[in-house]
Amino acid sequence: MFEQVFASLPEGVATTPPGAALGALLEQVDPRAVSPHDVVTLAGAWRRQLSHHEARFALAAREVALADPDRPGGRRAGFGELGEFATDELRALLVESRTRVAKLLDHADTAIAAIPELWAAWDAGHLDTDRVRICVTWTASLSAEHARAAVLAVLPGAAGLTLSGLIERLQQVATGLDPDWAAKLYERARRQRRVRARRTESGTVNLSGLDLPLDAGALSVAHVETLALRAKAAGHPGLLDTIRADVYLTLLHPRPHGWDDDTLVAHVVAHADPADPRGRVTPRHVGARGPGPGGDTSADDREPDSPGPDDSAPGEPPEPEAPEPDAPEPDAPEPDEPGSPAAGARVTASRRAGIEMRVGLLTLLGHDEKPGTLPGYGVVHAPFARGFARQLCHADWRVAVTDDHGHLIAALVTRRRPDGYATTPEQTAPAARPVLELRITETELKRLREPAAWTGVLADLRARFRAWTGPSSSPDDAHRRFPHAALARFIRTRDRTCVFPPCRASALVTDIDHTRAVTHGGATLAPNLGAACRHDHRLKHDAGWRLAQPAPGRFVWTSPTGHTYDRPPRPVAPDIPDPAPGGHGSRTTPHEFATDDPVWIHGPYPAPPSRPPPRPAKDPGTDDPPF
Prior knowledge:
The protein is α+β, with helices and mostly antiparallel strands. Helix content is 36%, strand content 11%.
């Protein structure tokens, strides 16, 4: 062994604001010469400096567009005075198309002139260019007032969100600020639903359904995924992607009368193409039961009155549960090995095969218009949530009771349904039982005046809440290998997603992980459990990361280089602003319109001569080549 000598970072690299001073410090350091710990600090400093430089470039580019030697002061007053040729010098300087330059200037002008706080965060290195672009792009259809209000609401926490998380947060806030706009936008786009087909360069065809209703679309995706998983479990040797495609075509293709799902699956398996790529995983039969990180849900371990294998509510199928080891055993097969428990569970627990909706109970009762969330699909407006809840009567109804700050107090279930809600599921054997999660504060639950149709549901919830004593903490439970169903449900409701800080995998498709392993004396209790997706679960066992849970629901990850990453407890109920009086007047007109034109786009036959050819999707005048 020999002692490695590393160069030291200049003092202040981690704390100096971006600009000339930080640039001078960074230029002194060769990243190849510093320690593994310091190179992480160095990368973070360079990221701040890069954001600062890109913000200053955007400022300079905007000034180039505004420059006019014939005006007083040598510049135009604003973008409203730009002429046709104002951007051409930037085109020549940057060697870019008019379209690219227009996008660059739009982002710069919005961030600098319309939302100066956004540019200030960018210039200070608090926000990187990609997140600034998201803030501009995903509010482009909003009115100036609406866009500014949405961006200012998300700005304090934007740096801690992934790009997809930032998009979802912007959608939540924009919908909360103007629920009527969100409902009109969805409904008008839904009216433009259509099917389009495009022949590819290789001779295959891409068949797409556009602007489909979200409820029907999500249920259709779940149905295709369920049938594909069943075909895989029945012995189809192909990749899941190709099996999904075969199921999709079989569902659309004319077939003999009387075919049920079993017949369709058998047909897909029997007609598997031996020339297709071979699959990498072999799941066990969809719907098989057994212990796992979701809880050992044998009849003895279930909560009183919760549906078990033999006592499901009429018309409600039991929820399948996929076994996965809490931590990989030393001699266990890798998760991607055929036949491994992790492989089978990973496929069975596919998010596509299940439906999950999260919404406030007050929203379902019509007391507010707060948006809900359909994990995997994004934010849904209140009228959609109320309508879709009626289609999820056979789902597992879970109720998160929170404090006034949105943090979880109790995770309840109810088998009661409001009067007038149908209880017969549309399909008898889903791969994963849908989940409808309702949120309500303790104060609201105690004081709420419910409609008559909801009296039974609220009475049941109040009784269960009075009986709630917290997640189980008995000595027998503490020594279990896997948590029982009620404790697993509490952990997943509390954590919301995988507990690795940037990961957004829904907690429903994660392992329940022991922060301190059972083999090292860790107890199967809430303060020692967390939701972790398969990849991030394995960080602890295979990649040298360490995990601590200093308080229930707060997770601190330490990397092999010694850096720590904090994942604080997340509120169950997101902070959504109240609607602005009168709305914001944002645009609700769809970008595209349904027509009677042929389904083919650039297809093998022309449009009928009685109609002019469809207008190209790109704006006229662009010099970007068509792709």
